[in-house]
Amino acid sequence: MSNNDFEPRIIGFFCNWCTYAAADTAGVSRMRQPSNVDIVRVMCTGRVDPAFVLKAFAQGADGVLVSGCHPGQCHYEKGNLNARRRVTALKPFLEAVGIGRDRLRLEWIAASEAPKVAEVVAEFTETIKRLGPGPFRKKQDDD
Amino acid sequence: MATLIIDGQEVHAKEGQTILEVARENGIDIPTLCYHPVLEPYGACRLCMVEVTRRGRTRLETSCTHPAWDGLEVKTHSPAVMEARKVILGLMLSRCPNVPVIQELAQEYGITEPPYPVEDPDEKCILCGLCVRVCHEMVKADVLNFSQGGIERRVGPPFLEKTRQCIGCGACTIVCPTGAVEIILEQEAVYQEKPLGPTSAIYVPSLQAVPRVPVIDTDVCIRFRQDDRSNGEVADACGACQMLCEADAIDFNQQDEIVELDVGAVIVATGFQMWDPTQLSQYSYGKSPNIITAMEFERLSNAGGLTSGEILLADGRKPERVAIIHCVGSRDHNAHEYCSRICCMYSLKQAHLIRDKTGAEVYEFYMDMRAFGKAYEEFYERIQEEGITMIRGRGAEVEVLPDGKLRVMGEDANLGKLVAADVDMVVLSTAIEAPHDASKVASLFGLSRSPDGFFAEAHPKMRPVETNTDGVFLAGAAQGPKDVPDTVAHAGAAASMALALMDKGEVTISPQTAVVDEKLCSGCKTCVSLCPYTAITFIEEDNVARVNEVLCKGCGTCVAACPASAIVGRHFTDEQILVQIEGLLRATAPVEASAEREKVHE
Question: A46 to chain B, minimum CA–CA distance in Å?
């Protein structure tokens, strides 16, 4: 498979109050963005269990984007800080098991930052395109 | 209580009053130049001289210093008094021949020319000492005093040199009867007059203020400024307002208070602020006193303002041509992208006021006319019929010409030409923006803000007054630019939302709460420390954690963290989310993978 027609599949865990609302606005405003990110809505990025991220990769996702409110603006005071801790801890593990640390990304996108959603999605899709298909997806495709 | 007779009239005096004070209370006029009600009498000008008869002896006395004793007989305009005053006024006029107040008084006493040789035609000071007394007694700065003696006697700061003791309060210039004291603005320590702002340190914030009570601007008030300079000691300066207030209502010890209230709902109605047009230098705001913002224009045309509602230029002339520039800072990528919504209509109103009050020609530079509200378009039509020149195109630049006139340049899009208008006054319809401390308010209440800086509502169409924080509502321009009818409607909606919330007597909470499966809980207490709402308590006797569902907001942090997977996040359970992930990836997954899963599900 050449990288040109490779369309990454990315799972986005978006917090209900900030990034999900921003993504909603981006959609309503008809902002152009790649359609590679599929969104799973959670109430808070603090809800994102590392198991969800691993499950997504195991199911053949090429990238995972976790995105919520800016530090200090969490609807639940500090759930996003817990998410940051988990993502930081998870990255070396992903590297060690051969998935790669760059396939997981954490971004702060406030409800008012709809253009940033489009920007981050486009940019992350490009990154994943450059990295190529995820290891588990490759296996599925090779079967 | 003393009883005395002034000009044949029996009058009563209180303990400690002087003859002048009693005479004034009873409407008897005695001329004076050196008296001020809040200062100690000094008897310097001698004009208040009266004839006092006591125990059969008659003498000329200064009424400002003579106590109003019982049994006095006072004549304020007897021949002897008139003669004495005439001599004094003759001397004064010879010393200060060109001071209007002395000229007028002298005229009253029949003197038209200085009777003695004039030494300095520019002399204005009559050495009455009002400035010295006000500086000493009220301001407590002790900058001004008399120096030298005899014919050399004069008033000034020590050695007649500039002094840092002077706070530039201007009290001396206000009390000086002859205009002899002048303040020269040259240091930042000197209070810069705000021409269209409050005019004294104590003022009623607006005519419509509720309650209608004056406030003291402590940055300007002499008393507070002197306290600030006195290294913690109470300087006890001025206090003129307190001395003169008959209701005894002025309390300098009043402090700002922090009042704590327990409330069921909060309505955030923090409003807006006017944008500062100096940020767009092409409008030359600040380079000419006749370039004003719309808010300053409102102050100018207000009947309670500086000019009692007359629309005047800085030099007091009536303007003949006025330009109003719309969208200054609005709909502009260099300032705010949004439309401030209220400027079109207030600009039209102001054009009408200018036309009505001064008859001046008015040029309105507008981009689009947004007369969107009820009866607004009709008003716009009426304004056009009043002969106001509408120029479709943003005013691009204001130039201050050497003769003080203002040249407004812009493009008339309808003509497709560049146009310029030379005018006397320019009114800038500046944008409105979120208050500068909106971010503090936002973090206080957990509000988010839309990209324009105003607070974001929960949903732009369906929930325009609610926020994402339960029990916090928005009203008015805090949520976005609004005119008065929209603000009233929005505020009414916010008030009824708050009432509806409180009137129910109970609170509906979201069902998305966490619940601990006590059979699986290992009692590690990880969740207890993570919960931001202290909704999880550890039950020692059962060795399990338990969630208080009223406190739980359902963020799911504890669910993700539980090492035993003993906590379930209702409506966002692990199963629900994992199935979502599977489902999303199955949709585009290779056929084999899907087939495999089908098998599993069979």
Answer: 4
CB B485 within 8 A of CB B374: yes
Mutate to test the interface with B, among A10, A13, A15, A43 (most CBs of B within 10 A): A43
**Numbered residues of chain A with Cβ closer than 8 Å to any chain B Cβ:** 9, 11, 17-18, 38, 40, 42-44, 46-52, 55-56, 59-61, 72-73, 75-79, 82, 86, 110-114, 140-141, 143
Can you give the residue range of the structural domain that contains A107? 8-142
| B290, B403 Cβ separation under 8 angstroms | no
**3 state DSSP class of A22:** helix
pLDDT at A49 over 60: yes
**Considering B508, B535, B558, which residue would you say is the last residue of a domain?**
B508
Q: What's the confidence (pLDDT) of residue B193?
A: 42
pLDDT at B588: 54
Amino acid, single-letter form, for residue B75: K
d(CA B321, CA A68): 55
Q: Which of B1, B81, B3, B8 is nearest to B47 (CA)?
A: B81
Q: How far is A117 from chain B (nearest CA, A)?
A: 14
A12 forms beta bridges with A39, A65
B50 in Cβ contact with B28 (< 8 Å): no
8 Å CB contact of A44 and B557: yes
Q: Given an 8 Å threshold on Cβ–Cβ distance, is B560 in contact with A59? A: no
Candidates B425, B450, B426, B424; CA nearest to B439 is B450
Task: For residue range B156-171, list pLDDT tens digits in order.
Answer: 998 888 888 888 788 8
Q: Which of B557, B559, B574, B575 to mutate to test the interface with A (most CBs of A within 10 A)?
A: B557
pTM, 2 dp: 0.67
Q: How far is A81 from chain B (nearest CA, A)?
A: 10
Domain that holds residue B523: 514-571
What's the CATH number where B32 sits?
Answer: 3.10.20.740
Number of domains in chain B: 3
Of B508, B530, B563, the last residue of a domain is: B508
Give pLDDT tens digits for B333-342. 999 999 999 9
Lowest mean pLDDT among A60-69, B95-104, B177-186: B177-186
